[in-house]
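User: Predict the structure for this protein chain, please.
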Amino acid sequence: MHTTTTTTTTTTTTTTTSTTTTTATTAATAAAAAAAATTTITTTTSSTTATTTTTTTTTTTTTTTTTTTTTTTTSISFATTTTTYYYYYSTTNTTTTTTTTTTTTTTTTTTTTTTTTTSTTTTTTTTTTTTTTTTTTTTTTISSATTTTTTITTTTTIHSDKKRIQ
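Assistant: Here is the predicted structure, written as structure tokens:
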């Protein structure tokens, strides 16, 4: 008997952060001391991190059964001059051995993918950086169990024949 079960679980987590910085610079010239020139620079940094975890578990169970039967028969016959009986003695031993082996193999594969996208925008430029990291872990577990059952059956037959020994 062979049975295989597969289970897959996928989880995705997304996190977004945004930071805005405003810098104002004021410069005064000698010719226009009363008039101030102000330059404003706005910088926005946005970061998005997405993590996807996929776990796949496969379990395979194999069961093997072997049966062996052995039969042994022992016969004894005898008669004496003091009796008119002929005796027949028979013993039959039947040994049945059943061996069942069950093997279970479990394989778990976990894949984690993390993608981080960082975008920096200033007044004049935009810079985007994407980083992807993938980690895969595989674990295999094998377990085996063997059960042996032995049955012995003994049959004894005694037969007497009332017959004069010639």
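The first strand starts at residue 2 and ends at 28.
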